[in-house]
Write a structure and sequence with these properties.
single chain, mainly alpha, 12 helices, binds 2-acetamido-2-deoxy-beta-D-glucopyranose, EC 3.2.1.101, Mannan endo-1,6-alpha-mannosidase, Mannan-1_6-alpha_mannosidase, glycosidase, glycoprotein
Length: 420
């Protein structure tokens, strides 16, 4: 990803208030949620030109990582709604990225691959493993092995030359913007993958790394005293330049760390469990930053928004998708730490209703917009907007879905022919 250092103003936002019937989402009705999610999933997939047998890159302006993120959103769609229409396309897209060493260092995408991009595909690969998702190609290892390979590749780049450790944002010198930056999403991605692999395998190496990456992140102040996850720090300055006043913060980083902490709480016992549960709760409390406090305007309290950019209309293409991953991981967190369910449901269900009422754009009057705290459709109808609404709405169904699998419940490789 390559946004932080150049937050460019987006094109002037257009406000289109559709005269169509607002999408009314009845969050207490599974059928209503499934049907709204189905429409938004269709909208999401309209950006993808691949087939059941062939991967195709997303068109500009969408980077390679966003395709990985999209396949993750669609995996969630399949799992939460039970609609398997897109499964083969999703699986084909995922395994096509494995690369010669089966670690998602895809030579074709090297120009667009930083540690965070690889981690995003990693989230998707582990989600496939945790659901025994069918795997379409016998010449490629199963999802769990792919996920472990991604983890090893990230671990090999842990860099102690500055800042006492940490992953840099970029991998290749040919992507100089970000080589001297250690950021929350790369390290948070590595942290969350460590936690999930610890849960899946029970291997202590992953537990140790989850602790190490967490401690490093707090040590730099990227997770600050208020449990706000800030964007990153400069390795050229030995990570001494991070501050809430000058460093932006994005919802997805908060969500990525929250889920990692929740998974650690779930697999820990005794004092460790208390410690990780406390961290999960503090991260969630701090997430309140990403929900509107504007109670006096259009009843919009507790509606999710990207506070670094959204209300001033400068979110770029990547940023408009962040609310989706934030929702994904905050919903997933309540499965790991059930005591946070009331808070999660209050925030995300309110946001889901608000998101749905804005899905009135495009020629069919169903495309979702950028801002949810205003009446009707507002902003653009891009892929990020669809994914953000999709994850926030379909996540309502998470309590009815099987929790992520672990241990021997994860089967090595399931093919499509034997699965349906
Ligand atoms: C960089 O910061 C770390 C603490 O984060 C410190 O241990 C180390 O000595 C610092 N290095 C330099 C060269 O200042
Ligand atoms: C634990 O995981 C690490 C990292 O993937 C690996 O090197 C090691 O072999 C694993 N240990 C066991 C006992 O599987
Ligand atoms: C806010 O909610 C109240 C009570 O549900 C309703 O009467 C009022 O019309 C709403 N205001 C707006 C601007 O939607
Ligand atoms: C861990 O997560 C499972 C769902 O996978 C849940 O049933 C269980 O209560 C959680 N355990 C703890 C200690 O919170």
């Amino acid at each position: 990803m390559r946004f932080v250092k150049s937050v460019k103003p987006a094109a002037a936002a257009i406000s289109l208030i559709s005269a169509g019937i607002p999408k009314s989402l009845d969050i207490s009705s599974t059928t209503s949620v499934q049907s709204v999610a189905k429409t938004i999933a269709q909208n999401t997939m309209s950006f993808y030109k691949g087939t059941d047998d062939q991967f195709v890159d997303l068109d500009a302006p969408y980077y390679w990582w966003q395709c990985g993120a999209m396949m993750g959103s669609m995996l969630d769609y399949s799992h939460y709604t039970g609609d398997h229409t897109y499964d083969k396309k999703i699986a084909t897209a995922i395994v096509a990225q494995a690369g010669p060493d089966f670690d998602f260092m895809s030579p074709a995408h090297a120009g667009q691959e930083g540690n965070d991009d690889q981690a995003f595909w990693g989230f998707t690969v582990l989600a496939a493993a945790e659901r025994n998702f069918p795997q379409p190609r016998s010449d490629i290892p199963g999802y769990l092995e792919l996920g472990e390979n991604i983890w090893k590749s990230l671990a090999s780049r842990w860099d102690t030359s500055t800042c006492n450790g940490g992953l840099r944002w970029q991998i290749f010198a040919s992507n100089p913007n970000g080589l001297d930056y250690k950021n929350a999403v790369s390290n948070g991605g590595f942290f969350q993958l460590s936690a999930r692999l610890a849960r899946i395998t029970g291997n202590q190496t992953y537990v140790e790394w989850a602790n190490k990456v967490w401690d490093w992140t707090q040590g730099t102040g990227i997770i600050n005293e208020y449990y706000q996850v800030l964007d990153g720090a400069s390795s050229a300055k030995n990570c001494s330049d991070v501050s809430a006043a000058h460093t932006p913060s994005f919802s997805y980083s908060q969500g990525i760390y929250t889920y990692g902490a929740a998974v650690m709480a779930n697999i820990s016992t005794g004092a460790d469990q208390d410690k990780w549960t406390d961290r999960t709760k503090r991260l969630l409390e701090s997430s309140q930053n990403y929900f509107t406090p504007f109670g006096d305007v259009k009843n919009s309290t507790d509606v999710m928004y990207e506070h670094a950019c959204e209300h001033i209309d400068i979110c770029n293409t990547d940023m408009r998708s962040f609310k989706g991953y934030f929702s994904r991981f905050v919903y997933a967190s309540k499965i790991m730490v059930p005591s946070i369910k009331p808070t999660v449901d209050r925030l995300l269900h309110t946001s889901a209703k608000a998101a749905a009422q804005g899905c009135q754009g495009g020629s069919q009057g169903t495309m979702c917009g950028t801002k949810w705290y205003v009446d009707g459709f507002y902003g653009d109808a891009g892929l990020g907007e669809q994914m953000s609404a999709l994850e926030t709405i379909q996540g309502i169904l998470i309590d009815q879905a099987n929790p992520p699998l672990m241990g021997d419940d994860i089967k090595t490789v399931r093919t499509f022919s034997s699965s349906s």
